[in-house]
Specification:
Leucine-rich Repeat Variant; about 260 residues; about 70% helix; 2 domains; mainly alpha
Length: about 260
């Protein structure tokens, strides 16, 4: 059958296979092996067995090859959830900015695992566009799980543009979103988060949120937090949180005043 008569998905795979086969003969032994691996994986990513397709997606994430990125993007539309998830996570592993748009599209899926995999991948890739997709999800999603995952991914990607959305998330109705928002603010390192974190601490939050705020204040290295943490230490009942307060205070006291 002529290539022009293939359906678009089969045509794209056939084209990748042809390109890979052409380059194999022109490369060094190591490069030739990598391209040979790509040819093999390009076939496996379309195998009838979902387990084979999933394994191929995982391996493609370890290759530094644009053709592999294209195959993973195509696999985001696989009819098997395990394959889609593996492809999304592998795409994040490549760090390719080309994966941001299709991953952002995956955030619209009705499947929670699809969305979670896309969130993790976008946080791994990072950059302005990935951060914007995560921020929009945090602002608009009615799902506690999505908001929590997006906050964690934003912190991991250190999205500077997320300062205000994260501060607003300190008042989220779900305690894990509040806790992860505090941790993410500590990761960002922006001292404008200190006052909102101290305000949250004054509202007598639950253990998980209190612990997260204490960790974040230590990470921010702003001496304004010394007094409130010393006061908290006097009344805190949790031994784990007491230990963390002491660790954060040690960091804060070691911070020179001229660094404020």
């Amino acid at each position: 059958m002529p290539l022009g008569q293939l359906n678009p998905k089969l045509f794209s795979v056939a084209l990748v296979l042809f390109q890979c086969a052409f380059f194999v003969s022109t490369l060094s032994p190591q490069g030739a092996q990598e391209k040979a691996d790509l040819v093999k994986l390009a076939a496996q990513i379309k195998d009838k067995d979902a387990a084979v397709r999933r394994s191929a997606a995982e391996e493609l994430g370890q290759l530094n090859d644009q053709a592999g990125v294209d195959l993973l993007i195509s696999a985001l539309g696989d009819d098997n959830q395990d394959v889609r998830s593996a492809a999304a996570l592998a795409l994040g592993q490549t760090g390719s900015a080309k994966g941001v748009e299709p991953l952002a599209g995956m955030l619209q899926s009705q499947n929670l695992r699809d969305r979670r995999s896309a969130i993790i991948a976008l946080g791994t890739i990072g950059g302005d566009k990935a951060c914007e997709a995560l921020i929009q999800l945090l602002k608009k999603s009615a799902s506690d799980e999505d908001r929590d995952s997006s906050v964690a991914a934003i912190g991991g990607a250190r999205c500077a543009s997320a300062l205000e959305p994260l501060i607003k998330a300190l008042a989220d109705e779900h305690h894990m979103v509040r806790a992860d928002a505090a941790m993410a603010l500590g990761d960002l390192g922006d001292k404008r988060a200190v006052e909102p974190l101290l305000a949250l601490l004054n509202n007598n939050p639950g253990d998980s949120v209190r612990m997260a705020v204490v960790v974040a204040l230590g990470a921010l290295r702003d001496r304004r937090a010394i007094g409130p943490l010393e006061n908290l230490l006097k009344t805190e009942k949790s031994e784990n949180i007491k230990q963390q307060i002491e660790q954060s205070l040690e960091l804060l006291r070691a911070t020179p005043p001229d660094r404020q």
